[in-house]
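Batch manifest, entry 17 of 40.
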Amino acid sequence: MKVHPITSHELWAAQSALAVAIVLQVVVWAINKELTYGPHNLIVVTEITLAIIIGFTARKRHVQAKSLYRVLSTGLLALISVANITSFFLVARLLITNGQGLSGRELLVAAVAIFLTNIIVFALWYWEIDSPGLTGSKWSKHDKDFQFTQQDMSDDFANWQPGFIDYLYLSTTNGINFAPADTKPITHQAKLLMGIQALVSVFTLALVLARSINILG
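Output type: C-alpha cells
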C-alpha cells in the first residue's frame, strides 16, 4: 500500500463530515441519558482527539508510518460506528420495554441523528477501504472495492478517480434506497459494509414508523 498526502479539498470534506457525525452523536446522547452506554464523554474526547491527529498528519504522510495511519483511521471510524449502532439499539430497547421512555419529538430527533450519522460514517468507511481514505492509501483502478459509472466510460473519464463526495453520495443512496444508485460493490468487505448500513437505516426508519403508528393508535 503506497501512502500519499490527502488533498486539502478531500481533507476539508472529510473533517467536516467527521465533525458533523460527532455533533450528531452528542445530540443523541443529550436527548435522553438512557441513550448512552459507557463513558460517553471519554468517547467524544477520543473521537475529537483522533480527528485532530489525523487532520494534522494528513498533509504529511510517509510510507514508513502507513500502519499507524491505518490504525488511527479505522479506530476512529470503528468508534463512531459502534457508538452510533449502540445508540440505535438503546432507542429500540426503550421503545420495546417502555413505550413512554421517549417522547415523539425525542424519538424523531434521535432517529434523524442516528440515520445521518450512519450515512456519514459509512461514506468514510467506503472511502477508507477503496481510496484513499483517511489513511491516504494510493488509489489504483486495478485494486478497487466499488465500480463507479465513470470507470465504465474510460474514453470520457480516462484519468477519473473517486473522491470523498462520490462515496458520500454512494452512502446516501444506499441509506435511503437500501441499494446503490449507480455504483456496484465488488469485494466482500464492500458488500458487507453496505449490507450493515442498509440494515441500520431500514430499522431506524421502522422504529419511527412503529412509534408513529402507536401514537396515532
